[in-house]
Structure formats: C-alpha cells, structure tokens
Amino acid sequence: MKSLLVLLFPVYLFSQEQCFDDGEKHYPAGDSFSPTSEMTEFILMNNPKHIKYKENKGNISYEQDETSDEYSPMPQDQKMPEHNNPFTAFQTYFQNQFRYIRFQQAGKSLYAVAVNQFGQWLLEIKDRKPKAYYIGFSKNTYINHIQKDGFIKDNTLFLDGSFIGIKKGIRFDKWTAVKDFLTFEINLDDIKKIPTMTDTMIFLKFWFS
Questions:
Q1: Residues 6+ away with beta carbon under 8 Å from 202
Q2: Is 156 exposed, middle or buried (0-12, 13-18, 19+ CB in 10 A)?
Q3: 89-139 pLDDT tens trace
Q4: Which residues pair with 182 in a beta bridge?
Q5: 44 exposed, middle or buried (CB, 10 Å; 0-12, 13-18, 19+)?
Q6: Are 191 and 52 in contact (CB under 8 A)?
Q7: Handedness of CA 26, 29, 33, 38 (dihedral sign)
C-alpha cells in the first residue's frame, strides 16, 4: 500500500502529463526545429508565478548540458560528519524514488535537488526528518544536470536551466531551447507552501482506508 500511495499522490495532486525530464537525451543534433514566436510566448506566459528567472550568459547552454553525462557532486567542504555520503543519506529515507542532481548543506538542513517521473523536487533532511517539496516547474522547463555550488542562498533556490519547445514526433519528441542561459529563482517559503510528499501520503492513506 505504501508503494501505491507514493506512486499515486503526484497524479492526484498535479495531473501533469510528461511534465518532467525523463533522463533521456532530447537534443536533436542536425535535426533541430525553429520554435514559433507564438510557441515562445505561450511557454513564457505559462511559467508559474512563484518561479522567477533571469538570463545569465555565464551558464552553460541547453545543448551543452543535454550532451553531457555529468551530474554535479556535493562540494567536499559542505559535507557534514553524519552525512559523509549525502546520496546514502537520502537513499535511507527515499530509497530509489529519485535521481539526484545536486546536494548542499545549509544550516541544519541537508538539501538535494532531485527528479523523478513526476517532476523536479527539493528534498530536505533536518533533524533526521525527511521532506520532499514539489518545485512546480512547467513541462517546458529544463533544469540542467550540471549546477553551480550553493544552489540555496538567502532562503532562495537558484537553479540553472532553459525554457524548451517540444515538437511531438512519431517515435521521439524533439526538444529545442526557446530561451536559454537562464537562472530560475524560487523563494523557499513558496516551495514549502506546496503539500509535501509525506503530507499527501497521509491524506491518501486516510482517503483509501
């Protein structure tokens, strides 16, 4: 039943079809398409209001990130004694539910930016209590696998990425950047207003009991 609840709750809560980075390569080398101005305008208008963004030419491009197999490790100077291996720490609580993009120690909390079939998440372990916050990116937001050090500063989450256009294909979808070199900024208080994985599981357990 626990596994069933974990799988069902994002569908119940968000009902977003294919709103995530599925881990597959989408950069159409030699076979790109040009997004229309209407597509670009639609994507920008549908960015959630709690997610701000700005252009940063120092970022790597969508193409560079898509063709890279790297993920950002946790800096050595941010490791805390009881979490010498942050991956192991999160696996203890979340098992194999996520792929991890970046880890950071901030105050008493150990954070991870992670992704699963339902989207991008901010995970937190504080005082040995785990929480999973759904960030709420639109399906046209691509979050880089390679992130800068210190993605949490001043109670704000900073993540590099791009807005992408998606063209449906017979066998494979084609993705292309419609607005590149972006840094997204989300206030942690806004993220934490969204029900956590634990909160929603408790609701569903009551609903199905």
A1: none
A2: middle
A3: 999 999 989 999 999 999 999 999 999 988 999 999 999 999 999 999 999
A4: 55, 161
A5: middle
A6: no
A7: positive
Structure-token pair, residue 194: 């969204």
Determine phi and psi for 159, rounding to 5 degrees. -135, 135
Count Cβ atoms below 10 Å from residue 136 Cβ, excluding itself: 21
Q: State the CB neighbour count (10 A cutoff) for residue 107.
A: 8
Q: What is the pLDDT of residues 28-82, one digit of tens each?
A: 544 567 888 999 999 999 999 999 999 999 999 999 998 886 655 544 444 444 4
Q: CA 205, CA 121: separation in Å to the nearest integer?
A: 22
Nearest to 10 by CA among 140, 134, 139, 138: 134
In angstroms, the CA 21 to CA 143 distance is: 8
Residue 75, φ and ψ in degrees, nearest 5: -55, 140
User: Regarding beta strands 129-134 and 119-126, do their DSSP bridges make them parallel or antiparallel, or are they unpaired?
Assistant: antiparallel
* Helix residue ranges, H only, the chain: 2-14, 37-45, 62-66, 86-94, 188-191, 197-208
Amino acid letter, 180: D
Q: What's the token pair of residue 75?
A: 């800096």
Tell me the whole-structure pTM to 2 decimals.
0.76
With left for phi above 0 and alpha for psi between -120 and 50, is residue 181 left, alpha or beta?
A: left
